C-alpha cells in the first residue's frame, strides 16, 4: 500500500514537470510579441533542419538498400528519435500559432495600415 502511494507521488511529480516543460516550450504565459515572434522563427528553423535530417536519413536508407548494407539497431533508433523530435517540433509550432494568434493578427493589421499609410 505504501509503495503504491510513493509510485503515484513520483508519477504526479513527473506529470507536473512535463506540464511545466510543455508550458515553457509553447510560451503559455508569455504574450510579448518581441519574444514570441523570434522564438517562433527559431522553432521554424529547427523544423527546417529536422526536415533536412529526415531527407538525409531517407537518402541513406535508399543507399543502404541499394548496396545491400544492413545498418545497426542504433541507426533505426536514431530514425525513430528523429521522427519523434519532428512531431514534437511541429506540435510546438502549431500550439504557439494557435495560442498567440492575436499577436499575429495584430502584426498583420499593423503592416496593412503601414502599407495603406505609405
In a few lines, what is going on in this structure?
Keywords: Membrane, Transmembrane, Transmembrane helix. The chain is mainly α.
Helix content: over 70%
What's the overall geometry? flat
**What's the alpha carbon Rg, rounded to whole Å?**
21 Å
Major beta-sheet overview: none
Structural class: mainly alpha
Q: Give the distance, in angstroms, between the N- and C-terminal Cα atoms.
A: 72 Å
Instruction: Provide a count of the helices.
Output: 4
- Domain count, please report it: 1
Strand runs, count: 0
What is the average of the pLDDT values? 84
* Secondary-structure element series: HHHH
Give the low-pLDDT segments: none
Strand content: under 5%
List the helices and strands and how they pair.
Layout: H1 2-25, H2 33-67, H3 73-99, H4 101-117
Helix pairs in contact: 2-3
Task: Tell me what the structure shows.
This protein has one domain. The model has no long low-confidence stretch (mean pLDDT 84). The radius of gyration is 21 Å and the shape is flat. It is built from four helices and no strands. It has helices at residues 2-25, 33-67, 73-99, 101-117. It is an all-alpha fold. This is ABC transporter permease. It comes from Neobacillus rhizosphaerae. Keywords: Membrane, Transmembrane, Transmembrane helix. The chain crosses the membrane at residues 39-67, 73-98.
